[in-house]
Specification:
Elements: E1 38-45, E2 55-62, E3 67-71, H1 78-85, E4 93-98, E5 101-102, H2 107-111, E6 114-117, H3 129-139, H4 144-157, H5 173-185, E7 191-195, H6 203-220, E8 223-228, H7 231-237, E9 240-245, E10 248-253, H8 255-260, E11 265-272, E12 288-290, E13 293-299, H9 300-312, E14 319-325, H10 329-335
Parallel strand pairs: 3-8, 3-9, 6-7, 7-8
Antiparallel strand pairs: 1-2, 1-4, 4-5, 9-10, 11-13, 11-14, 12-13
Helix pairs in contact: 3-4, 3-5
The chain binds adenosine-5'-triphosphate (ATP).
Adenosine-5'-triphosphate binds near residues 50, 72, 74, 78 and 229.
């Protein structure tokens, strides 16, 4: 049975709640970004033995009160970039300023403003959840009373209250990740740097994390740098996104403007139940064929015509599913040839 949605120019999922959209920008650290909370200029870093830099000539400026994403495939250089931003790696070239302080010259001053969630968990495992989060708040300078209150609020916000007495090491991978997020959120740091905060989380937990991020941005003006390779997450929560491919910036703008840059292309996907009775080239020259799943980006008229032909012809009997959808950030990655990085 054909079961998917024909969208006719509207989104397949309900669009995220509208956010104030910052003006478009290249992300460059010019005079307009004097107030930026995190400014990187020409960052380049290579690792020994690698044929190309892991991060090359990356320039960006994160504005106060925005959720700034770094999106790219595995190995694109996202974690290396955030480790450079945090001063945990030294760049071969380029500079980083966090809250006005050069991270190389004033690492401690810069770090005092930032809560960082690394891609891999730090050493919270021996503590119970309650102690892990409260201790993090205390280490960030909160009084015992405030640390306790914040710990209780953050655990409730992320649905972790019932696990407060459990040792972190005994939790599931997703629960441990949520505790890491809770530790990043306590103590109200003005800049959160979150490296793949929702990896391994189910949809409810991911939503809780996205809501917690938006609450801090909207309520406290918290700025967030969020690393992800999940385009749905990027479309849901990011104000602007820097797209990385093999260490280089491919684009940096709002998700909406990046999609507009595709020039009105829509995505047509066909899933076949049996061997398709037509050739992919009957649809278009550049159909991506993955087994019985075909995918192609076309101008809307061409996509409609191709779909009409399939639905009206004998091929319909072999069709299992189809999607005709407006472009997503996935299409932005594909349009830039980033798929080849995988
Ligand atoms: N410490 C290191 N030593 C050598 N090479 C490294 C090191 N860290 C990262 N790399 C290499 O740098 C490149 C970028 O890695 P990085 O971890 O930054 O990518 P990523 O986009 O975060 O990937 P993922 O989404 O898989 O986490 C990769 O080719 C990786 O192998």
């Amino acid at each position: 049975m054909v079961s998917l949605v024909l969208i006719n120019g509207r989104a397949a999922f309900p669009p995220p709640s509208p956010r104030p959209s910052p003006p478009p920008s290249t992300g460059g650290p010019d005079g307009a970004h004097a107030a930026a909370v995190c400014v990187a200029d020409g960052l380049t870093r290579s690792f020994p033995g690698a044929s190309r830099p892991a991060v090359e000539s990356v320039t960006l400026a994160v504005r106060p009160g925005e959720v700034f994403g770094v999106l790219g495939r595995n190995g694109a250089g996202k974690s290396t970039l955030v480790r450079l931003l945090m001063g945990l790696l030294r760049p071969d070239r380029g500079t980083v300023r966090l809250m006005g302080a050069d991270v190389t010259a004033h690492a401690a001053r810069a770090a005092a403003h930032v809560a960082y969630l690394p891609q891999r968990e730090s050493a919270l495992g021996d503590m119970d959840v309650r102690t892990a989060v409260e201790t993090t708040a205390r280490l960030r300078g909160m009084s015992r009373v405030r640390a306790r209150a914040q710990r209780a609020d953050v655990l409730a916000e992320l649905g972790l209250t019932g696990l407060a007495g459990k040792r972190v090491a005994r939790l599931s991978g997703g629960q441990r990740r949520l505790v890491g997020v809770a530790a990043a959120l306590v103590a109200d740091r003005p800049l959160l740097v979150l490296d793949e905060p929702t990896t391994g989380l189910d949809l409810d937990a991911r939503r809780a994390v996205w809501d917690a991020i938006e609450r801090r941005r909207d309520g406290d003006g918290t700025s967030v740098v969020l690393v992800t390779h999940d385009v749905r997450e990027a479309e849901t929560v990011l104000d602007r996104v820097l797209v990385l491919s093999t260490g280089r910036t491919v684009a940096c703008d709002t998700p909406g403007l990046l999609k507009e840059g595709l020039g009105g292309l829509v995505r047509l996907e066909l899933a076949w139940r049996d061997d398709p009775p037509i050739d992919a080239r009957d649809i278009a020259d550049h159909v991506a064929v993955r087994g019985r799943r075909w995918s192609v980006r076309l101008p809307v008229d061409e996509a409609r015509r191709a779909l009409d032909d399939v639905l009206a012809g004998p091929a319909y009997a072999a069709l299992d599913d189809f999607v005709l959808a407006p472009p997503s950030l996935e299409d932005v990655l594909l349009a830039d040839g980033i798929e080849e990085d995988r």
